[in-house]
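DATA CLASS: polypeptide
GOAL: derive structure tokens

***
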Amino acid sequence: MSHTVPPQLLGELAAIAGDDGLLTESAERWTYGYDNSRRQGQPDAVVLPTDARQVRAIVALCNELRVPLVPRGRGTGTTGATVPTSGGVVMSLERMDRIIHLNTADRYLVVEPGITNQAVQDAAAAAGFFWPPDPTSAAYCTVGGNLAYNSAGPHAVKYGTPRENTLGLRAVTGAGEVLRTGVFTTKGVVGYDLTRLLIGSEGTLAIITEATLRLTPLPRTRRALRAAYRDVASATLAITRIMSQPDVPAALEFMDGAAVGLANGHRDLQLPAHTGALLLLEVDGNAGGVERAVEAIGRAATVDGLLDLKAEGADGGAADIWAARKALSPALRTLAPKKINEDVVVPVSRLPELIDGLSALSAQHGIRIVNFGHAGNGNIHVNLLVDHQDPAQTAAAPRCLSAVFDLVLGLGGTLSGEHGVGLEKRDFVDRELDPVALGLMRAIKRQFDPNGILNPGKMFPPQAHP
């Protein structure tokens, strides 16, 4: 174990969470020591609270004993943010999965953090609503994890991220103090916006025990468009044209030629020969408005290099391509033993430069790069496929990744749109954030978590000590 825990810790944890809420066997602890980044750490104990009272007691205990505490949901994150690199205690919130209150008149849903995104969508849909954040892993990932990373998904282009769709939170700080943030109304400007601060903080400031989610009425009609292009340049031109006109699509997904080949291998998409890039769009709203929007978006998507444009019901023929899009990320793992998955964002107008730059970096470093993602936001999933049995690729991969980040920042972009920082991007953060900003963020961390027990070693690069 990487951290020696005080001898009284396990007994007191069992007293708080019960014997069935504490895991100490090596195999059980190992299960909670990794996430989808494939990084691994071994906690000294795993605790599974069932309510906010237990969360507070566990945090207070770990704070008193100076024991690292790493909160987690289902471990679908890709940046190592829930990997316990310092040992200590992992707190899994999976048993806190209740719907507390649904208010249809004021359009909000109060839930615990361990509920899955899909369970929220099902409950909201039964009342005629939905919660816009919809990551690819929605069937398994938890709302607490969505909030920790500010994870959105394809519909963020129209409806925003969890920060725009969460009214308030209850949480426990690293000092064991309970706080309520936000409001139950759609407007409110009293005090600092602590709700948006905690969302995206990756469990480094406080542990969320309850969330008030802002619901949106389900659209009456949905239509899908599929646009196939000769090459990436024509597709990215179409993206900028689509996002420059008033009819904003509910989703706008992009696949480069390599991603198209993978998707087509998953399901026969019946695409034109020599398709070099693909856009998948969704339009929603009232019937008349949707038809007008489909026409307007279709005109914007019609550029030199368009091979085929089809419009169909979003739940009809588009189902196959949406399924293929969701299968892309796991499918990439079959092409190379190591997939470095980055979710960078650039201004939409700079997408052509980003894709061209990535192609050049791929050729320069001898690393295959496959690109797809939420093009309407400029959020592209850049996948470096590395064969670590090849010494040349192993040596080139870090240099290529560093160059990718420099390219993104040079285009006015950001290093992460929804995957977060965790461990994977921690050492690159100071390229994007200036020293004053980093200093303020570290001071905020100390205010919320004075003894530094919450998810230590994540988000910020290590500080040099004299």
